[in-house]
Amino acid sequence: MSVDEKKSATWLFLELCYSWKKLILIVTGTFTVLAVILSLLMPNKFEGYASVLPSQKSALLNMMGGGVTSTVSNLAEKFGSLVGGSESQIGSGFSYLAILNSREAMGKVIKKFDLIRVYGIKDSSIDAAIKKLSSNTDFALDRFGAVTVKVFDRSPERAAAMANYFVHLLNEINANLSSEDARNLRVVIQARYEKNLSDLSAAEDSMKVFQEKYGVFSLPDQAKASVEVGAELESQMILAQVRLSVLRKQFGNRSPEIMAAEQQIAALKNKMGDLRSGQDLTGNRESGVFLPYKEVPGKAMRYLQLYTDVEIQTKLLEMIYPMYEQTKLEEARETPTVLVLDKAVPPEKKTYPMRALIVISGLVLGFVLSVLFSLFVENGVKHSGSLGPLENRYSELSVRLRKKLNPRCANE
Known about the structure:
Structural class: alpha+beta
């Protein structure tokens, strides 16, 4: 569109408004007055505002690897990267929103503040009251991870009181749910803890029976002692045999020194035999210090199995017992589960209705509708010819506008 065409369209619009000024003023004024009346009839609503922060994860949840399911955890992680909160905060925030929007919370607020009477629910329907209350509440999770509670009501004091009561219910219901969750977890861990104690006791009894039966109290140390003593005896016997060979070359087979050497070798062989059979160096088999060589592999395998069972059950006990104690603490604790960041106070100014915006909207709507109606009538006159006097009026306006826009048209 050229500059001249734009100027022409502007002049035509202004001429149209001037020609239909009475209608435009009447319609615009009527809509404005109606908007003023409507805004005055609408009741004032005040906003009760409170905000809470999710409490930090308890030691139990850290120990168990988290307090939310994998699906919620993944969703919280993705949402948290957008709003800036941590995964634990976002996950707890979603849980808090679910509690605030629950039927239990809504029902308690309705009963506490007698909202069926306040809202004028004629049939005393709790469902209708919950629907009305839901439309007057707004629970959200802000980008910092805080849960905001907004309640709208005609009374500023009641709006603030309802917001604070929602926070109270949030803490109460969440504490009950946490306690119930900890109780269920405690039952499971307690059963596993008791089984662990039973298994450990059985493993220790098996180890004791094995030790008493075979005289084994520390198989690695006993086997090492047997090997060391055996090696010492073996080395002494080899030296004695070497000495015997030397003596035979020097004194012959009938020498007293030869007989003494042979007796020494025989004694060492007997000691080696005793050691292989499990007797100590004094020939006492009941001492249990030395293990028979031929029995060491079998006993070592059985001892290793029993020792492993005892160690496994001991390690499990070291892990399960702290968890069991923590579940009992979680179940019994009565500390607040939410941190109140902002407590609701009666607002000084109303939130709704925005009367200035309503009046301006009515004024603009009346003006637009009246102009559109004027354009419709003018176009109808131009194309139908059924409104004779108006058609002449339109033609006269067109000629006057052409003369104003282009003086050369005056001579045509």
